[in-house]
TrEMBL record:
It comes from the Bacteria. Keywords: Hydrolase. Residues 14-413 form the Glycosyl hydrolase family 13 catalytic domain. Belongs to the glycosyl hydrolase 13 family. InterPro entries: GH, GH13_cat_dom, O16G_dom_2. Gene3D superfamilies: Glycosidases, Oligo-1,6-glucosidase, Domain 2. It comes from Agromyces sp. G08B096. Pfam families: Alpha-amylase (PF00128). GO terms for biological process: oligosaccharide catabolic process. PANTHER family: ALPHA-AMYLASE FAMILY MEMBER, NEUTRAL AND BASIC AMINO ACID TRANSPORT PROTEIN RBAT. One of its GO terms (molecular function) is alpha-amylase activity. This is Glycoside hydrolase family 13 protein.
């Protein structure tokens, strides 16, 4: 594997800039905070950082509502800060991946403001999806397409004289109008943006909502009967030429830049099409995240995803969580331990001790799989989802657009605890209130506390990443253990064994355990745990 292919095995750490670390003491994370945290990330052993959007934004959707793709939001810093951060990270051997959001812009973006100020049918409006409504007075939206945050997918504009005007499409919040990718300005602008950031040394981009960008201009309803590639607004065949063009641009650079797709579609064959050799380098594999903590289900998901990737030549990615989903420690402690947006609700009981144990076992399991690994900030600390946030603090549009029925995603976005006995735990200077409150119970979960504690989640991650670096890039084979609760596979000289059950199990004979998510007696693998072992010599 050449150095340019670093992304095939990379450990990518996801930074949610508002919540990593606060460098200027305003209670919100920023780039200076990340800069201060670089030695930590280097010590942990990550290969790259993926930053969720850091651009100028009204922050209606945590920065996924971008007002200016060429500027850093003032809460986070300046463009110079970003350039310095990219360079300082590179000096530590850490690459930078940024988030590009092509499906929509912020309603504060100059294009959308110009569109609102222009006539129906104008060029400025054709960069978006403006349409007259249906029914008498156009009072009904053009379609009933599902909105990803709940509520309608169209909002109506108001004319200068106060009368209602056209509707515009937004598959997410109303403050995130969808772009019309058939307009030549849209494609051109994104090519310029790719170069803008590639020229500044970013190693790659994570492409937000990558499968959503094309829509059927006939605006049919989604009656579930469409042929593959013909859904009204998801995974349409026309997305592929866009990403092939992006690949050409990425390949112009030395070293070539990398494209990572957020492709959240269930059909594995359709998913794999994004990974054709002239398209994206990798895409997030979300299948495993939706699976319950269960031997057969994990085996099934891993096999299916490795198989789906094989013909493309692209590596699989392994993702246990991110800034949109319930923290693993909380999820794995639940009866329904696979993640689903639909099931997200208030007051679902969880057993955090069990959840932590399984989350550690899962981390070691995915860490041993071939491909690249994503770690969402704070998972290495075993942070639980914060499910009792003060309602007045909640910011996520998912909460508001479901009328509070869905708690939203803020519970996994609480600022990280770094040190000390009480909030803000070194995230901000003492006495500063963080933008989401941290639980007092996090005193035992701070970075400082866990560095000291030999058996901490943090030390487990750190050792795992050290040993992971010694695993071969390729090669994977299941090992049949004969035990229904035990999943085992081989990676070079290493055998990874997970016990999904609630009782201890015998470890296959002749193995010497060198890494374990929980202590076990010799010859045994403890309940809900994973070990890495080598044949005893
Ligand atoms: C996916 C992102 O991960 C999520 O946080 C965001 O709300 C949507 N895309 C819309 O941009």
């Amino acid at each position: 594997m050449s150095a340019d292919e670093w992304w095939r095995t990379a450990v990518v750490y996801e930074v949610y800039p508002r919540s990593f670390r606060d460098g200027d003491g305003d209670g919100v994370g920023d780039l200076e905070g990340v800069r201060q945290g670089l030695p930590y990330l280097s010590w942990l052993g990550v290969d790259a950082i993926w930053f969720t959007p850091w651009y100028r934004s009204p922050m209606v959707d945590g920065g996924y509502d971008v007002e200016d793709y060429r500027a850093i939001d003032p809460t986070f810093g300046t463009l110079e800060d970003a350039e310095r951060l990219i360079a300082e990270a590179a000096q530590l051997g850490i690459r930078t991946i940024i988030d590009l959001v092509p499906n929509h812009v912020s309603s504060a973006h100059p294009w959308f403001q110009a569109a609102l100020a222009s006539e129906p049918g104008s060029d400025a409006r054709r960069r978006f999806w403006f349409h007259p409504g249906r029914g008498p007075e156009g009072a009904d939206p053009p379609t009933r397409w599902k909105n990803n945050f709940g509520g309608p997918s169209w909002s109506r504009t108001t004319l200068a004289d106060g009368r209602p005007g056209e509707w515009y499409l937004h598959l997410f919040a109303p403050e995130q109008p969808d772009l019309d990718w058939r307009h030549p300005d849209v494609a051109r602008e994104h090519e310029v943006l790719l170069r803008f950031w590639f020229d500044r040394g970013v190693a790659g981009v994570r492409i937000d909502s990558a499968a959503h960008i094309m829509k059927d201009p006939e605006l049919p309803e989604d009656d579930g009967s469409h042929a593959p590639g013909r859904h009204p607004n998801l995974d349409r065949d026309e997305v592929h030429p866009v990403y092939r063009r992006w690949r050409e641009i990425a390949d112009e650079y030395d070293p070539p830049r990398v494209l990572v797709g957020e492709v959240w579609i269930p059909d594995r064959q359709r998913f794999a099409r994004y990974l054709d050799p002239d398209e994206l380098h990798t895409a997030f594999n979300f299948d495993l995240m939706t699976r319950p903590w269960d031997t057969a289900s994990y085996r099934d998901s891993i096999s299916l995803m490795l198989e789906a990737h094989a013909p493309t030549g692209a590596p699989c990615t392994w993702v246990l969580s991110n800034h949109d989903v319930t923290r693993p420690v909380t999820r794995f402690g639940r009866e329904h331990s696979g993640f689903s947006f639909e099931e997200k609700a208030w007051n679902v009981p969880t057993d955090l001790a069990l959840g932590r144990r399984r989350a550690e076992a899962a981390a070691l399991l995915v860490g041993a799989l071939p491909g690249s690994l994503y770690i969402y900030q704070g998972d290495e600390l075993g942070l639980p989802e914060v499910e009792d946030l003060d309602l007045a603090e909640i910011q996520d549009p998912m909460y508001f657009r479901t009328g509070g029925a869905n708690p939203g995603r803020d519970g996994c976005r609480v600022p990280l605890p770094w040190r000390g006995q009480e909030p803000p735990f070194g995230f901000s200077p003492d006495g500063v209130r963080t933008w989401l409150s941290q639980p007092a119970a996090w005193a035992t979960l701070t970075v400082a506390a866990q560095v000291e504690r030999e058996q901490s989640t943090l030390n487990l991650y750190r050792w795992m990443l050290r040993h992971r670096a010694d695993l071969p890039a390729d090669g994977f084979a299941w090992i049949d253990t004969g035990a229904a609760d035990v999943l085992a596979f081989r990676r070079g000289d290493t055998v990874c064994v997970t016990n999904f059950g609630s009782a201890d199990q015998d470890l296959p004979d002749g193995l010497y355990v060198y890494l374990a998510s929980a202590p076990s007696r010799r010859g045994v693998i403890a309940a809900n745990s994973t070990v890495w072992a080598t044949p005893r010599r």
